[in-house]
Amino acid sequence: MGDKIQGDFSAASSHHSMLVSVLGSASTAKDSLLYSYGKSFNGFAAKLTDEEVEKFSEMEGVISVLANHRLNLHTTRSWDFMGFPSKGKVGSPQEGDVIIGLLDTGIWPESDSFNDEGLGSPPSKWKGKCQGANFTCNNKIIEAHYYNSEGDHDITDIKSPRDFEDHGTHTSSTAAGWEVDGASYFGLAEGTARGGVPGARIAMYKVYWLSGCYSADILAAFDDAIADGVDIISVSIGFDGFSPYFEDPLAIGSFHAMKNGILTSASAGNSGPFPFSVANHAPWILTVAASTIDRKFVAQVVLGNGQAFTGLFVNSFNLNGTSIPLIWGGDAANDSAGADSDISRGCFYGALNSYKVQGKIVFCEGAVNGAGILLANGVGTIMADSSFTDFAFSFPFLIATILVGETWKDVMAPYVVSFSSKGPNPIALDILKPDVTAPGVDILAAWSPVAPPSVDQDDTRSVKFNIISKTSMSCPHTSGAAAYVKAAHPNWSPAAIKSALMTTASINVTVVPSVLSFSVIGEKKLFSVQVYGPKIAQQPIISGAIIWKYGHYVVRSPLVVYNILPGTQYEYPSFSMSQKKPDSIGSSMHHKNGIVKHKY
């Protein structure tokens, strides 16, 4: 996508003319055009054959042609844990001038979290609008728009910004929800639910439906959000895998947002713990991993001999101590579906024999969402994941009961959870990703009363708040934090806000020695890094080495390194950086405020 054309320019007319030149007729071009992006950048989305795509690719002035890819969706305590007081130094009037735009599944406007009591009219700069049936904006939700380029609606979908999946309602209230007393999930996590900046405004751009989310809609939402006047964009959506930046709609849209002074905060993805799995890793995006807070929800499994095991579980059901037969998933393979023991032991969807599982608790090897057990009419599950430490159970007996969940203090918090996608950056190895981590485990936030509170779509219980986990939950925490900084410093650039968030964590780093000097290529220097802070039980010391070789330095340690490029004012952290061969023989590494830097 190119820059917005200045002056007397009609994007729609220009794009239509380009389509006519390839498709041959005005009517065909009109039917083909899905979106004309011209408010904030220049480009369009259209229905084209492979042959027509090839013709466009060869046209002068066309930067790139990309497919309409499908993308995926990636509290009462979390903001307190982060050190965000309910009444911060930034007052409500300043917060009210900040607008957070969210690209998500929509929003449930009647939620108590979106009450606009005490809020005045939106800022005068605002250009957005409310769209769709069965939806009313207020002074809290000041924009609601929906997009569906594929026209692919589920029977339960309504053409409205209203949220029927509740992902968007949850993320919106996490970032900027109003304070709601007495919030809980069936008694768990009871307290006052609030967002990071309760006084901020919300603009919802609904791009995700039950059928999914597509590139063209993402770009259309960015085009509108930039033109409408949002201050922060929050996106808990991303690709599985990775694409070059010029083919990634989130990278493209966020780049134009950055050029217009808007920071984009995006989730890192849920494909951990595997390396190179991080999503939304463009340098100008604030990429957010998921970590824990000092509260965890647990439940006990009581076996037939009375022995009890405690595991992580958000359980609102009470079995009243009733012992229920226990079966291993590997003994309940759905042979008719082609599943064997190696598959059914993981309790994958459709892999279990309902005749064997019905009315039983199923022991599953691996972390699953429970949908496979529900399909086979099981009443509960015990998950044991031997690969990671997030879940751990063993069982020697054939009957068990699962007790109602309870809340424990997690003294080890915070730590990055296993599902959170990991770096290094698969496109730009020079750029360290994710950028920051934020609470993304067991987050309580607003929920639609008409949506099921569990993975069971037939779950008829109604809740106003729900507890869920993923990097989708951590992203709005940083979006709220960024909005808070923006409220305090309205003139700060996206880079300044991002830098403030990345360099003010409550840990300190000491590097010894403070300077490493290199005189010859191939020389090796040793260093140590000590990390300490109020929430770190120990003070770990990490040793490492840096080798200057053929104009590169190689870091063999989890060390943050800043590169300062000549003639620029932009810094970015990375594990390693490919350098030009130095003009002089001498070079040095040094650190400032706990951050190691290379300067040349």
From TrEMBL:
Keywords: Hydrolase, Protease, Serine protease, Signal. Gene3D superfamilies: 3.50.30.30, Peptidase S8 propeptide/proteinase inhibitor I9, Peptidase S8/S53 domain. GO terms for biological process: proteolysis. Its main location: secreted. Residues 97-505 form the Peptidase S8/S53 domain. The active site is at D104 (charge relay system), H167 (charge relay system), S472 (charge relay system). CDD domains: PA_subtilisin_like, Peptidases_S8_3. InterPro entries: Peptidase_S8/S53_dom (IPR000209), Peptidase_S8/S53_dom_sf (IPR036852), Peptidase_S8_subtilisin-rel (IPR015500), Peptidases_S8_3 (IPR034197), S8pro/Inhibitor_I9 (IPR010259), S8pro/Inhibitor_I9_sf (IPR037045), SBT (IPR045051). Residues 10-74 form the Inhibitor I9 domain. It comes from the Eukaryota. GO terms for cellular component: extracellular region. It is found in: Secreted. One of its GO terms (molecular function) is serine-type endopeptidase activity. Pfam families: Inhibitor_I9 (PF05922), Peptidase_S8 (PF00082). Belongs to the peptidase S8 family. This is Cucumisin. It comes from Lithocarpus litseifolius.
